[in-house]
What we know:
The complex is a heterodimer.
Chain A: E1 6-10, H1 11-25, E2 31-33, H2 49-53, E3 58-60, H3 65-77, E4 83-85, H4 92-103, H5 106-109, E5 119-124, H6 139-143, E6 149-151, H7 156-168, E7 173-178, E8 185-189, E9 201-204, E10 209-213, H8 216-229, E11 235-239, E12 242-244, H9 248-258, E13 261-268, H10 273-284, E14 295-299, H11 308-314, H12 318-330
Parallel strand pairs in A: 2-3, 2-4, 4-5, 5-7, 6-7, 10-11, 10-13, 13-14
Antiparallel strand pairs in A: 1-8, 6-12, 9-11
Helix pairs in contact in A: 1-7, 3-4, 8-12, 9-10
Chain B: H1 7-34, H2 49-56, E1 64-67, H3 72-78, H4 82-89, E2 113-116, H5 124-136, E3 143-148, H6 155-167, E4 171-177, E5 180-181, E6 184-185, H7 186-189, E7 206-210, H8 214-229, E8 235-240, H9 258-265, H10 269-279, H11 285-307
Parallel strand pairs in B: 1-2, 1-3, 3-4, 4-8, 7-8
Antiparallel strand pairs in B: 5-6
Helix pairs in contact in B: 1-2, 1-3, 1-10, 1-11, 2-3, 2-8, 4-11, 5-6
Bound molecules: thiamine diphosphate and magnesium ion.
Amino acid sequence: MSAVATRELTMADALNEALREEMQRDPTIFVIGEDIARHGGLFRVTAGLLDEFGPRRVIDSPISEAAITGAGVGGALIGCRPVVELQISDFVSLAMDQLVNHGAKWRYMSGGQVSVPLVVRGPISNGIGMAAQHSQTLEAWFVHAPGLVVIMPSTAADAKGLLKSAIRDDNPVVFLEKRLLYSRKGEVPDGEHLVPIGVADVKREGRDVTIVAAGASVQLSLQAARQLAREGVEVEVVDPRTLKPLDIDAIAESVARTGRLVVVNEGARAGGFASEVVARTLDHVPLSDFKATPERVTAKDTPIPYATPLEREVLPSLEDVVSAVTRVMQD
Amino acid sequence: MTSVETGASVALTQLYLTMARIRAFEAKAMDLFAEKYIRGSVHPYTGEEAVAVGVCAALRPEDYITSTHRGHGHCIAKGLELRPMMAEITGRATGYCRGRGGSMHITAMRHGMLGADAIVAGSLAMAAGAAYGLQLQGKDAVVVAFFGDGGAQQGIFHEAANLAAVLDAPVIFVCENNQWAISTPISCAIRIENIADRAAGYGFPGEVVDGNDVLAVRDVAARAVERARRGEGPTLIEAKTYRITPHSAATPTDNRAPDELSYWRERDPIVRFGRELVEAGHASPERLEELDRQAGEEVEDAAEWALASPYPDAAAAEEDVYAPADWLTPGRLA
Ligand SMILES: Cc1ncc(C[n+]2csc(CCOP(=O)(O)OP(=O)(O)O)c2C)c(N)n1
Ligand SMILES: [Mg+2]
């Protein structure tokens, strides 16, 4: 690795830089969402954009998730690159028709005449007692919709580089940010920093077990890996960063080496992204290479409850990850 | 002033007391949030008390309401008890929803509270359906759906209003126009003066009322409720009001102009109603102070009771996802 100069930024500031830089280079980008202009977004991701780019490119919308998402699709069809903010990603359920029945399919249904260079981004807001309508991790919904790209960054640098790539990509991208990571600082390379879509990153190397985790689950997995290292278990943490397209080659290469797979994911268990990763890996790694049955560490199959002991029980915990790794080591 | 209150005075001072309870409850909730007893957020109803109290004064116990993220006031006005409310928002097993719901999701079926909804405008169609369902069952109960000015820009508002119209559903849509949606002024969200005017587009009455005048709200609500009970269908009431506190405990920044805030503080619905009660001889200033004190004590009691209550057992987290069913055996779902 060449020594690239870096700065320490929060993930929110890194995302803000990505938007700012892309808006500077491409005048067709407009950003629309609730409280994003005057207020700068509830989590400051769009702070300062109104002053720099003005109210025609940075728009405080009515509370109309379906309309802003549909307008984003429409703007994309005629050559703009809209970025739609969903204040909390759970509200995508109101926009799902525009996103899935329109944005995801318009290119296909038109026989390739058009493309939809749209980004729909918003936070996953679990872990802080926001309760069942503000705490969902819904990446599986989007991965299941042909036509969408799905991104979930875990670090400030990845957030910046991937958001820039998402804006430049000609496809509709769902970009999921973890609210508890917004204030987390990380080193971000100076200058033009792009992270390619569909390329995983090994966040920690290890010979014994492969953990596949994205977004907030990466931090949890790294924490587990550090703890397990003290017991002599070397965990490799592979962060796909993009959930669709999935860098299955990177995952398969790691699992072929370790022979053990644990997938950590905060989404609900049934039909979840963790199941998808296990299934895809089985397509690529011969059964004979596995030393243990793959494990999924996920949220329980319930809505996310409010009270602390209940929310803690339902979301994957450090102990859950450690015990899953311990189980595959014993197999 | 005599110390013996007439029947009319009792009813009016009760309205005052309910408003004072809401005011005290929200102040306490904000304290409990600051002290980390409450997670997530609290959206205080402070300054808007006359809307919920006026509307619910026109309801019977067997009528229903739906509510929003800013829902504590609706609950108290509908007659929910302070102790299990406080327990719910502090995440205790003794809360109305056993700690599952929290501040934004209080449901209390035994008080006709169908549920608070943290999805803006999310409960409007449910209210229409519930109202229709009541009618189908031969009951003469009605449903009131509270929502904000911001909620009027959701597609579901338009669909629910129109559907309620064609079903002649006994539902009253009460738009609490506090003129802001978080940081966004209503001028950014709509291009008409009155949200109530939209009712014409669905074919039922729309009425604008001073939402800081509890008796005016009660009267307009009573007319709408009568109409609904007679089977003549929905009404849209737009109560012009103002929240005199920031959006929420979690979003405390406030970009509203100071003179706008002070204009509305001077129109505080509780102070105003208290003045009217004194002027009309329904209560003495001392009596009002007594009611304020009573409200404060009830809220303190509720908080103490809540904080002495146990947290829910973690093992209960997976209960209640599904209604009981033969097929609901361990390991079947995920
Ligand atoms: C569908 C949806 N979009 C956005 C939000 C985030 N949000 C919570 S409250 C709020 C403002 C609501 O404004 P209004 O309806 O006027 O109610 P008020 O807060 O003023 O009482 C917003 C945007 C949400 N909870 N649900
Ligand atoms: Mg409002």
